[in-house]
Amino acid sequence: MAGSNEINANEAKKVVPLHTWILISNFKLAYNMLRRPDGTFNRELAEFLDRKVSANAVPVDGVFSFDVVNRSTGLLNRIYRTAPPENDSGEGNVAGVLELEKPLSCSEIVPVILFFHGGSFSHSSANSAIYDSFCRRLTGLIQGVVVSVDYRRSPEHRYPCAYEDGWEALKWVHSRTWLSSGKERKVHVYLAGDSSGGNIAHHVAHRAATSNVEVLGNILLHPLFGGEQRMESEMKLDGKYFVKLQDRDWYWRAFLPEGEDRDHPACNIFGPRGSSLTGLSFPKSLVVVAGLDLVQDWQLGYVEGLRKSGQDVTLLFLEKATIGFYFLPNNEHFYTLMDKIKNFVRS
Amino acid sequence: MGPYDSSISAAAGGSTSSSSSACSSSTKPPDQMDHLLAGAGYKVRSNDLNQVAKRLEHLETVMVKSSPVDFSELVNDAVHYNPTDLASWVDSLLTELNTNVSGQPGPGTADLSDLRDFPAGPYGNGNVTQTGEFSQQAVTPLEEDVSIRLVHVLMTCAEAVQRGDISLASLLIDDLQALLGRVNSGCGIGKVGSFFVDALSRRVVNSPQNGAVQVDLSAYENEILYHHYYEACPYLKFAHFTANQAILEAFDGQDCVHVIDFNLMQGLQWPALIQALALRPGGPPLLRLTGIGPPSLDGRDSLREIGLKLAELARSVNVRFAFRGVAASRLDDVKPWMLQVSPKEAVAVNSIMQLHKLLGPNSSRGPPIDLVLDWIRDLNPRILMVVEQESNHNQPEFLDRFTESLYYYSTMFDSLDACTAQPEKTLAELYIQREICNVVCCEGSARVERHEPLVRWRERLSRAEFAPLHLGSNAFKQARMLLTLFSAEGYSVEENEGCLTLGWHSRPLIAASAWQAIPKPSAATPGL
């Protein structure tokens, strides 16, 4: 209804800083134009509008990046690293290349975060400006390495493509000697992701657990889960803070196999069709829930499900946060989050 | 990661934050861009933040209130420009929605997508496998180690060359030859690495001061390499296609048009434009084409030959056409009077990978770029189309140039790996090799491949009093369509502040931008 939309804009404005409101509203309106009622997606316009940045081998604020294409998938991996101390010849530019010859460290453990960007399975890429900025901040925070990966997006590529690409990325990361560290010379991997990326991180971790591939921890930033049932948060917050329930439904329809419903195990982890995690050596999880995200009841249900399965899970509930609060470092939720991640990766 | 900016209050005080940022922004200079949104890829002036927020809100209201028909028209027909400039993007959508109410059809300009007989070379006949999977031979971990070592030694050798340590450089070149023997020289770093090792050894053996490092090919041989480069990968096709789109739009409504091509070569760009003009609603204009090219030393008048072929084509589609060839060995030898531009014509200047050649010294004089840009401006063109390599190969320090070109050409060679057609691929590689050689081996006026990135060209062209003409979502969409027709997966078109780039995966390699001259204030005093 037209009237209620005007009210909603004002509500969101009360709880987010101006910059965040502009950024997320811009995405909201652009994305409205990309989702077609018939379930198809205007990919051309999406790619045109998405602001992208190149990798930069010259350190900026102590972080540099370079891209590597995974030859078995053809997908991009963007590696972020902290700049080594300048040597005498000041070879800033060649740093990336020289460092590929050795492990990250032979004595210390250097965390490597394998990051899956969000976008409800349909939007964004590893080289999207918002994700490049976020990964740079993350790299500086953990003083380690972040590997941000592209995965095939829906509706062109439905379940399970994104999970398969995530799995390939994990195997890739594990097999790079130049990402290894510590006395045991292995890669110390954490999985992380926001929105759909969080969902992917969960499924990749699950596969890793059943295949004896080590993942040291999961960091899920308002991960995308759902189900057929309508939860209280979905009904109460529908349309109020940038997101409409019908939009969420559209993205699930675009991602899940045709004809499937939201109780599909990709979507509803602990639902009627989910498989049990009890007894699995599933990594410890940090699940961040934004209190103004309509998906929160599903995320809280996920946390509960992990606990009941005997898994180690920490919930960070940010009551007044909306989706995308971490894109700009201009609010207290951002700094709370960063602190929590830093400690999670250190312990 | 310190405490956040004190001018931005905590989240709970959202409404206060807008007023506090309004207070702080009043002390900022008017053109200051907000740095937070800049990190997200948007340029918004700090002073405009509140205004942009209001417009966004208004846009949402209008979108919600619009009829489904109007909304779908907005979605399908609106052409978007320069999304980085958020304020103007929002405003353009508001304008679209306000004028869409009566359901008017869009402007009827001819469109290159209307062409039925789009030129399809051997590439388009399915010589290249387009698979969903990346059908590359897997690189073993051992090979990867050797590749990394190869790059390391290349850099060390280049550094020795820069320092003038020729004996060390020679030793390292021997090492490099040995390493090349251990990698797969058929693809990847092995292939491009061998060209760089070759270039380094040439430079070491014949110091650039002696000149004549690079063997001059005859014009005919040059043309052969160029033609195969054109067929093997989409860079030139993209350049031509995007330029033609922009020129077509600039010529809308004009009856007499004159295209000046800074490097005619085989005139491959022009058949498509001639055909598009032929199909233009309202009929084609009178088209003049002036092609600049090197003088033929072998007795052929190749400029005239191309001109005749194009005239033939124009006649067959009923486009009145006139051609003129201007022979010049260097672009700065061209004087504007040679182009015979008439004040009544709409002029388009087309420069595909040519302007960078003007950045070097010309014997004893400085770089002629500013003089040339000045006379281009004097022609008062409706459009100056510039396509350039997207890299900085013109840095003063040799090592920097070497490093940058190594990464650039590695990426370009990676993209060529997807081409399987022969001899297109081998000859295309030779074409690229000549560029590499020029960047690495030559100096002074012999070094003509002085590529500079879009960021620098923007500065230069602004200083020369040109204003950008933004390439929009329609050009973007069609460029992407072109790629799916002709090329393997992995090529990507990106929008960059009103310009379009074509690259391999996330690395842009070619940048296309369009410009128009800012009119000079009239010097004539009327009425005397």
From TrEMBL, chain A:
One GO CC term on file: nucleus
Active site residues of this protein: S195
GO BP annotation list: floral organ morphogenesis; fruit morphogenesis; gibberellic acid mediated signaling pathway; positive regulation of gibberellic acid mediated signaling pathway; raffinose family oligosaccharide biosynthetic process
SUPFAM superfamilies from the UniProt entry: alpha/beta-Hydrolases
Subcellular location: Nucleus
Keyword annotations of the record: Gibberellin signaling pathway, Hydrolase, Nucleus, Receptor
GO terms, molecular function: gibberellin binding; hydrolase activity
Origin superkingdom: Eukaryota
Pfam families for the chain: Abhydrolase_3
Residue ranges of domain Alpha/beta hydrolase fold-3 in the record: 113-326
Family from the record: Belongs to the 'GDXG' lipolytic enzyme family.
Protein name per its UniProtKB record: Alpha/beta hydrolase fold-3 domain-containing protein
Organism the protein comes from: Deinandra increscens subsp. villosa
TrEMBL record, chain B:
Region (PFYRE): 347-438
Motif extent (LXXLL motif): 355-359
Subcellular localization: Nucleus
Start and end residues of each stretch annotated as Disordered: 1-34
Domain Transcriptional factor DELLA N-terminal: 34-100
Lineage: superkingdom: Eukaryota
Record's compositionally biased regions (Low complexity): 1-27
Location of the region described as SAW in the Swiss-Prot/TrEMBL record: 441-516
VHIID, as annotated region: 226-291
GO CC annotation: nucleus
Gene Ontology biological process: gibberellic acid mediated signaling pathway
Family, per entry: Belongs to the GRAS family. DELLA subfamily.
Domain notes: The DELLA motif is required for its GA-induced degradation.
Name of the molecule in the record: DELLA protein
